[in-house]
Amino acid sequence: MLLGVLWLKGRRRSVAWTAAVMVGASATTTLLKLAFHRNRPQWVDPVHALTSFSFPSGHASGIASGMGVVVVLTLIYVRAAAVRRGLLALAAILVIVVGTDRILLGVHNVSDLIAGYAVGGFWVLILLALYPPEPQPGAELTSRQGGLQGCVRGRRRGREPP
Question: If you average pLDDT over residues 115-136, what whole number do you get?
Answer without folding.
Answer: 93
